[in-house]
Design goal:
By secondary structure, this protein is α+β, with helices and mostly antiparallel strands. It has one domain (2-105). The protein is 40% helix and 28% strand. The chain is built from three helices and five strands; from the N terminus they run ββαβββαα. The strands form two sheets. The protein has a three-stranded antiparallel beta sheet, covered by helices on one side. The protein has a two-stranded antiparallel sheet with strand order 3-4.
Length: 110
Amino acid sequence: MERVHHGAGSSFVTGSDIAQVLIEYARWVAVRGQVDIVSVPTRAVDGSIGRIAVLLTATTQMATETMYLAGRELTDRAFVDRMRADVTRLSSPMHAVAAEVAPAMEGYEY
């Protein structure tokens, strides 16, 4: 499990795979100068599962720390797979080209 620190002293606990893919995605959102809100699976102090909405921007500061908690690791394969696909898309050189070309095409009539 990992505690993810973000914002002004805020943090939440989530699974290790979830935390790692989230921080990698946050990096690429920042590199591309984009903004996104991600609904992240979390584990509460009482062990219940919840979600937190995390705003990612070019100035988002985030860090993770390993935690050793009793109980099973929080996993969400669909979330991790979706975020990995988003990381692949954002880190692709073609995404950079498309992002630069798109504004130039605004208002263009065929």
